[in-house]
Each structure stands twice: as C-alpha cells, then as structure tokens.
Amino acid sequence: MHRDPLIQLIDRYLERHHGETDTALRVKDFVQRYPDCFERSQQAGHVTGSGWIIDSSRKRTLLTHHAKLNLWLQPGGHADGESDALSVAMRECVEETGLRALRTVTTEIFDLDVHGIPERKGEPSHFHYDIRFLLQAGKDESYVVTDESHDLAWVEMQSLEDYTIEWSMRRMRDKALRHFT
Predict the structure, then answer these.
(1) Percent of the chain as helix, strand, coil, to the nearest 5
(2) Which residue in 115, 38, 41, 130 sits closest to 84, CA to CA?
C-alpha cells in the first residue's frame, strides 16, 4: 500500500518522541483512514511536506513569509498525489526558496504538525497534516522569493521569536539546536 512507508516513518517517530504522541497518532489515523490523504481533493485535509532548512553554520533557518497565510513559516506544501513525504518536502523547499543544494540531515521525520487552514475562494476549511524534515543548505545560501511568499529570510535561530511565536516553529528550532549539540 502506498501509505505504508509513511505509516512506518510515523511509527518510528512515535518511538523517539513520546511527548508528541497525540499529534503523531492523529496524523497516523488520518493517513490510515483516507486512501486519498495525499490529494488536495480530500476535503477533510491532506498530507503536506515541509523542511526546517538550516544554513551551513547550523545557526540560522530559512523562513518564508507565506503569501496566503501572511505568517513566517518553514517552506513546504501539498503532496499533490506524491506519497513520499521527503520528496514532497524537498520539491516544495526548492520551489519556494530557489535553493538548489539542499540535502537531508536525516531521512527520518523531524517534526509532525496538524494545523487548520481557513476557508477561502470556495475551498472549505481543512487540515494540513504536515510531515517535516530537517534539511541543510549548501554553501550557496542565495534564495529566490517566488509568488508563494511575500519574502524569505535567513533567521538566527536564537531570534526566531522576532518573526513568530508559533509553538510548532519554536519546537522545531529547539529540536534542531539539540540535534547539533
């Protein structure tokens, strides 16, 4: 089944992150319940993939000022039928940032999040079941602002709260800092 690899990744995430059981089980239940979980047409919600991108010094992260949500977030987007969440995250991060030399720090899930997306332009409110991976930029950290964003910025991880106080963003920052210490 095309969902099995993601379910296995979530199971391994559950083994490592006991404090995030509720969220991980919610994501797992959604993936198991909906065979079309990777499609935007699934109106209850859909799987998305994103990346917490760090620079070569491991002190900064690349954030996008999301055009539709008007928030500073990590880059990412819809699976659009692709069941390989890491491939989705890589594709979306390249598309949204223009960074070409991205590499995965680990192929395991870095973070999981479920967040609501408000209704807009005939699209009902729904949930994004976001599968997040830890990525690192290459030496060329030049980015390109696309129509997906109002802006992009390399942000010192210690200054993240200057851009967002969103709990899941702080959680990813803290995980990244722990990962490299």
Answers:
(1) 35, 30, 40
(2) 38
- Structure-token match 């959604």, residue found: 30
Report d(CA 124, CA 118) in Å as an integer.
7
First-to-last C-alpha distance (Å) of the chain: 38
Read off the CATH number of the domain in which 52 is found.
3.90.79.10
Domain count of the fold of the chain? 1
Q: Are 166 and 132 in contact (CB under 8 A)?
A: no
Domain holding 30, by residue range, is 4-179
Give tens-digit pLDDT for 126-181.
Answer: 999 999 999 999 988 999 999 889 999 999 999 999 999 999 999 999 999 999 88
Q: What is the pLDDT of residues 85-135, one digit of tens each?
A: 999 999 999 999 999 899 999 999 999 999 999 998 888 999 999 999 999
